[in-house]
């Protein structure tokens, strides 16, 4: 396998969206960094207090030390690490570790712990002196506005984020390895076609070549299965190429090329064709209005539906139904 990094594992644009929504729902701040501690995402929901702290060079330097130490401890312990920063705020580091190699960390927190005698001890990660703040009253106000959570809630939230990270990484790695394997098989086949292999490898017979090609086709088709099934079951919904690519854990560009290669038509053409076919069936078997059928097959503008239908069938939906009715009446058996 070629060398991979955190930006290969995570679709950063898509991950940023997940990170932003998770931060919004949990009222926390989140940022993802690589193994060097360099951010690979924007800060999601950074609190006003922490923004002000990080705007001051000396206090920002201490913040960075806390972040770095949190990541190091998470890697050392090989598990999620909850700690207090230099301002006594609760943060946590969720390490991204694959096959014992550290790729980066999801930093989550900027919350205060609700006081409880039964709370476990949380290490304060920075023991040195804090930098003096320029506006104490303002900073105390922003500090008081930080969300307060119970230790149970904090742990549940971190555990959920950990599961999300691990699931996405697992699927991304699986698809990455699949693409690598496909490329290897294709290169091997190309060498066979161009007689660029050694005498030993020339023993590969036609049956084995066909088996390799069949294997490629099957694996690539399996990557589209989730999207194809979703489309068939949800034609009434808005369906985009980007959403389908996300379902398959591949980039929109690769999804588009793979779809055209495997299905023989563009994604947009395939989607409209399925919708028109379903509309024809509804026109034939139901008394629903054109507007109702348009909505049921995913066209929320009846005028657009009529234009697309005419483009594919050469006539309008209303006329198509009348033609079917005349044909049905013509061959109807009268007792």
TrEMBL record:
Keyword NADP: no
Keywords of the record: DNA-binding, Transcription, Transcription regulation
SMART domains, per database record: HTH_ARAC
Pfam families from the UniProt entry: HTH_18 (PF12833), PocR (PF10114)
One MF annotation (Gene Ontology) recorded for this entry: DNA-binding transcription factor activity
PROSITE patterns for this protein: HTH_ARAC_FAMILY_1, HTH_ARAC_FAMILY_2
InterPro entries hit by this protein: Homeodomain-like_sf (IPR009057), HTH_AraC (IPR018060), HTH_AraC-typ_CS (IPR018062), PocR_dom (IPR018771), Tscrpt_reg_AraC-type_HTH (IPR020449)
Presence of keyword Ribosomal protein: no
HTH araC/xylS-type domain ranges (all copies): 225-323
Classification via PANTHER family: ARAC-FAMILY TRANSCRIPTIONAL REGULATOR (PTHR43280), HTH-TYPE TRANSCRIPTIONAL REGULATOR EXSA (PTHR43280:SF2)
Protein name in the entry: Ligand-binding sensor domain-containing protein
């Amino acid at each position: 396998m070629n060398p991979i990094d955190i930006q290969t594992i995570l679709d950063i644009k898509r991950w940023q969206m997940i990170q932003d929504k998770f931060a919004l729902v949990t009222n926390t701040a989140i940022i993802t960094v690589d193994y060097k501690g360099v951010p690979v995402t924007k800060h999601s929901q950074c609190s006003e207090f922490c923004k002000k702290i990080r705007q001051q060079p000396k206090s920002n330097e201490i913040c960075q030390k806390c972040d770095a130490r949190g990541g190091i401890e998470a890697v050392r312990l090989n598990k999620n690490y909850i700690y207090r920063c230099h301002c006594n705020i609760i943060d946590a580091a969720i390490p991204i570790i694959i096959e014992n190699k550290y790729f980066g960390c999801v930093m989550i927190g900027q919350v205060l712990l609700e006081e409880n005698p039964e709370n476990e001890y949380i290490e304060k990660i920075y023991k040195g002196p804090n930098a003096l703040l320029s506006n104490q009253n303002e900073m105390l106000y922003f500090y008081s506005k930080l969300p307060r959570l119970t230790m149970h809630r904090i742990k549940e939230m971190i555990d959920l984020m950990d599961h999300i990270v691990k699931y996405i990484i697992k699927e991304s790695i699986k698809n990455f390895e699949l693409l690598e394997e496909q490329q290897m098989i294709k290169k091997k086949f190309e060498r066979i076609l161009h007689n660029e292999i050694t005498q030993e490898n020339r023993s590969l017979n036609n049956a084995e070549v066909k088996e390799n090609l069949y294997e490629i086709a099957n694996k690539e088709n399996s990557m589209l299965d989730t999207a194809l099934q979703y489309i068939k079951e949800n034609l009434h919904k808005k369906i985009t190429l980007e959403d389908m690519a996300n379902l398959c854990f591949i980039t929109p560009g690769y999804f588009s090329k793979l779809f055209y290669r495997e299905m023989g038509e563009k994604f947009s053409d395939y989607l409209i064709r399925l919708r028109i076919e379903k509309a024809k069936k509804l026109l034939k078997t139901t008394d629903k209005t054109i507007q109702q059928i348009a909505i049921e097959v995913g066209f929320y503008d009846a005028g657009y539906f009529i234009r697309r239908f005419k483009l594919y069938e050469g006539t309008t939906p209303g006329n198509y139904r009348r033609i079917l009715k005349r044909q049905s009446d013509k061959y109807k058996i009268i007792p």
